Amino acid sequence: MSTERTFIAIKPDGVQRGLVGKILKRFEQRGFKLVAMKLCMPGKEHLEKHYADLFSKPFFAGLVEYMNSGPICAMVWEGLNVVKMGRMMLGETNPQASLPGSIRGDYSIQVGRNICHGSDAVESANHEIALWFKPEELMSYDSCTAKWIYE
Hints:
Blueprint: E1 4-10, H1 12-16, H2 20-30, E2 33-40, H3 44-50, H4 60-67, E3 72-79, H5 82-90, H6 103-107, E4 116-118, H7 122-132, H8 146-149
Antiparallel strand pairs: 1-3, 1-4, 2-3
């Protein structure tokens, strides 16, 4: 079985609204393994690097300012197809298009306050994980529940 890792961040609105535990619970209940987590305020320069692909968009400056406005819960999750499944669990970027049952469908209304960021591909996940975490911050361990989750 080949597993992968994804980067998930609970944005300042999710942290301020006390949704960290509820979001963690969803990923744990799904069966994914948490391998890194920290609460941080990384600063404007770091956030500009993270969102560099959106630099030319008119909302870029506001996005960086917003993301720099409060604590972020940065996480790395591991599991089979975790990038794709993580995106499905988050829901559409625009919460108005997100189905009930998804994180954004259940907890957010506007795209500018959409609770979470999730990597959109394995390559971007690897890049984002390296940007947010040092190698020694990533845990490697055998989960005692793996035999009950995977065949």
